[in-house]
Amino acid sequence: MSLNVPTELLDRAERGEVNDAEFVACVRESLPYAWQVVSGVVADLETGREPFADNTTPPPSEAERGQLLRALASDAIRGGLERHFGVKLAFQNCHRVAAFRTAAVDSDTYRDFISVRGQLLNQSPELRDC
Description:
Blueprint (H helix, E strand, L loop, with lengths): L6 H9 L4 H11 L1 H16 L4 E4 L6 H12 L1 H11 L1 E6 L3 E6 L6 H7 L1 H6 L9
Antiparallel strand pairs: 1-3, 2-3
Helix pairs in contact: 2-5, 3-4
């Protein structure tokens, strides 16, 4: 299961009354490692001048790796995180998470990061089973 949804939130969702803040809080509580990685790259982005910041440290265990995969493979979760933090997230392998400034999404840097070439160049033998 991707998220631990409190009963009250599930009841509101059944009635159609869920807002982004409630959803993002559920994500933060359910996927703490993914939240830590995303909020960390966003903090790095905010303190730097580069068009993006990224995390290249592999997760400490398969449980944490699973959190990243669930968070970034879900359009709803990824979109909620992007709206919350005001960034565009990009993902390579099973752990390389990047936060891009929204102004950088129409840039060569962003296109290079999300390109097939970028994906292939980010491979290594130790990451093949990740």
